[in-house]
Write a structure and sequence with these properties.
InterPro entries: AGP_Transferase, Aminoglycoside_PTrfase, Kinase-like_dom_sf. This protein is of the alpha+beta class and 238 residues long. Helix content is 39%, strand content 11%. The strands form 3 sheets. Strands 1-2 form a two-stranded antiparallel ribbon. It has a two-stranded antiparallel sheet with strand order 3-6. Helix 2 crosses helix 7, helix 3 crosses helix 7 and helix 7 packs antiparallel against helix 8. The longest helix is centred in the C-terminal third of the chain and has 21 residues.
């Protein structure tokens, strides 16, 4: 008889998981899969938000620890990096400011700075941390016959504010379908309001700055940065 048990058991994430590795709970044991080396593109000169995090003692309330407190990998439980993905935007302000300074030498980014400021001023995420892809942009979406068929590159998987991944609304979707997207999303998700949209726009601006500042050797990523910047600028003008 077929089993209903899922091969990969997914627990409720703590903010910032899984840190330096993509962690999978398989059969009650925790396997660690280190990040792949950086490839050419916006992360070839690593965003400061990707620095290695300090180690702290494991959280005894972590679901995996309650299941198997003796597992050696659990001794490397680490806190969320305040400059990575999924965190409050104000906590990574210096990263965005450095990227903005680099891009501002070549083009007007007033609209991106406005989006970032609005996102920082918006109410922080009040829901439980959500699992995040962490790098959800067009180059990591496989499209065939006008439909998204797969998502790739999970090297930045983390958890926290879903606004991080929702930046893809401006990075990928054309303007005429964004309103429909938010309506559909609100029908299936919780904590969806104007504050979430403001934070998502701010994350889109942050990603645009990353791509524009660090993609001199990658035309595809530079194009994504320009497209995202233009989407935010045009929406601001409407």
């Amino acid at each position: 008889m077929a089993s209903n048990r899922q091969p990969v058991r997914i627990h409720q994430p703590h903010h910032g998981e899984p840190h330096d590795a993509v962690r999978l709970l398989v059969g009650g044991r925790q396997a660690r899969h280190p990040r792949a080396p950086a490839t050419r593109g916006p992360h070839s000169r690593r965003d400061p938000g990707h620095r290695r995090r300090p180690v702290r003692p494991p959280n005894p309330q972590h679901p995996a620890i309650r299941e198997d407190p003796s597992h050696p990998d659990l001794a490397t439980e680490t806190p969320s990096d305040p400059n990575s993905r999924g965190v409050p935007l104000a906590d990574r302000e210096y990263v965005d400011s450095r990227n903005a300074s680099a891009v501002a030498r070549a083009e007007d980014i007033t609209h991106l700075l406005e989006a970032l400021e609005a996102g920082r001023s918006a109410r922080r995420w009040a829901g439980p941390p959500a699992w995040l892809h962490g790098d959800l942009h067009p180059a990591n979406l496989l499209v065939h016959d006008g439909r998204v068929r797969a998502i790739i590159d999970f090297g930045d998987v983390t958890s926290g504010d879903p606004a991080t991944d929702l930046a893809v609304v401006w990075m990928f979707l054309p303007s005429h379908v964004r309103e429909g997207f938010w309506s559909a999303y609100a029908s299936t998700a919780t904590h969806v309001d104007g504050e979430l949209v403001l934070r998502a726009r701010a994350w889109a601006a942050a990603f645009a700055l990353v791509f524009l500042a660090h993609s001199a050797d990658n035309r595809q990523m530079a194009a994504i940065g320009r497209t995202t910047s233009r989407a935010l600028r045009d929406e601001r003008l409407v």
